[in-house]
Description:
Pfam families: TctC (PF03401). Belongs to the UPF0065 (bug) family. This is Tripartite tricarboxylate transporter substrate binding protein. It comes from Achromobacter deleyi. There is one protein chain. By secondary structure, the chain is of the alpha/beta class. The protein has 2 domains: 48-138 and 267-335, D-Maltodextrin-Binding Protein, domain 2 (3-Layer(aba) Sandwich); 141-258, 3-Layer(aba) Sandwich (D-Maltodextrin-Binding Protein, domain 2), CATH 3.40.190.10. The chain is 41% helix and 19% strand. The chain contains 13 helices and 12 strands. The strands form 2 sheets. Strands 3, 4, 5, 6, 7, 8, 9, 10, 11 and 12 form a 10-stranded mixed sheet that branches. Helix 3 (59-75) crosses helix 11 (279-293). The longest helix has 22 residues, at 314-335. It is globular.
Amino acid sequence: MGNRRRSLLKAAFGLAGGVVVGAGLLSNMTGAAPAATDDATRYPSRPVKLIVPIAAGGSADKLARTVAQKLSEKWGQSVVVENQPGASSAIGNAAVAHARGDGYTLLLGGDALSLNALQPAKPLYDPLRDLRGVTKAVVNPQLLVVRPGLGVKTFQEFVALVRSRPGEISLALPGGNGSLQHLAVELLNERIGAKTNQIPYPGGGPATLDVLGGHVDAMLITLAAATENVRSGKLVALAVTTPYRSKALPEVPTMQEAGLADYAVESWQGFVVPASTPAALVERIHRDVVAVLREPETATLLENLGFAIAASTPEAVDQTVRDDIATYRRVIATADVKLQ
Length: 340
């Protein structure tokens, strides 16, 4: 075969030096399916789905919809938020863990990734094997709130009430059994020497509605989900679980200040994708999500809700999940917490 003929064949089939550079074209010509993943420079070329593994109306939902709107503007493609609550976030988390790694299914993950791995039943997914981090988005204190009609104004008064009526004071767990709130409340019960009546919910939205309606006495919830109701007087904030006060509600003391030495719980939320997602695509999504989080308008909005921006590297997300699994395993064993 002459050099001219070989050159024409290379041009026709996208070959250069024996390497296929037009795989999509060649696969179409041969009847095979085209490549499923966009090149990172062309991503996204169609709508993107962002799964939130809790019910609508909570802080994670607010965060997801805020970032989704900004990403839609940046990408010129819709970013559709889809709530998939259930099983302490395991259902939504697993949906992404088993999705195609093409960049079109994202997850707003968090503490539940580590806690799901510690459930006594066989997990629906393995967070370390099936998922990879994109970036942390925020960290968020947990906030203990009560309905105004309960008649307590301080954390100390709440503790006295629980001790006087053990097992009677109802307390909503927005993340359900096996959630960070569950673990934090079990530790709280141990520290104060009395039990609350814990009621699991699939998310902060429905839990908040029941507390506002007077059906439940108290709730431990991310501060961002409760800030507006506290400011309006619909809920009474007693204490935050972090060792520092929140800028959004600076008048609310920490549990350490209220008398529980060394008590500290902080939640995080961030963006995660299936483990099979190519590194170049992860980097593209990381770059754009971090840019959105650092936009002054976005940052101010989220900080006013009670979030603290905590953008990170993809590797930092994966390491946080590993570290949290080890930490929560020790806490569960020490406090004899039953996740189910």
